[in-house]
# Entry
Amino acid sequence: MLELNKEATVAERITQITETSFDKPDPWKCTLDPSGTYTTKSMAHLINSLKLGGNALNTTIPRNNLLPQKVFIFIWRAFQKKDTVRYELDKRGIDLDSILCPLCETEIESVEHSLVLCPKSALIWKHILDWWAQDISIISNLNDAIINNQAFALKKHGSSVWQATKWITCYIIWKHRNLKVFSKKVWSLASILSEIQTQSYSWISKRLRKKKSIMWHQWLINPSFFVADPPHRVGIG
Ligand SMILES: [Zn+2]
# Structure
């Protein structure tokens, strides 16, 4: 700690500070990191915590480095049931014309219904699982879509690629639900499936490149090369 001589003149104090400053290391400490030094990682954690409205480090959802941050935030919010589905809005006292799902218009729109159980979403999942040569039974609730990740044996990197594919599927289902609700866009199975394949390839291949390259035609025809023992595939669409 720098202690100035109170009897010194101003000029003497400035000289004392300058000399001391050069002699001693920078006393500033960054409280974001236990080491006391600033790191981009600690700042990223702080920003994530603020964005998510809580402590992102305490979430039970595993990280997935194959996806942009906005997808993780969407998934985290969905898992915490913070997405603005009609059931959740109604619980918060918001007056709505209907709390039925805007896609099937027969069931109450909860997060799980919207992303997994709605017949419109379930059909998307069926095609995604066909594409991965897997049975529809492995995605039967929100946990299966977000958390459970070992329904079938996967090769190296396969687990994170499959998880990323599931999260992108949820993200794009929600995007198209909103397009239908707010922009009156037609729900198109073919265009949603196409967007899931192209978007997942774009995000995943870019981030996986250093570890394993994926060719577009390979991804499109059969991503189950990440699967340890894939059954006979039946394709998508
Ligand atoms: Zn529905």
Q: What stands out?
A: The chain has a mean pLDDT of 80. The pocket of zinc ion is lined by residues 101, 103-104, 107, 113, 118 (CB under 6 Å).
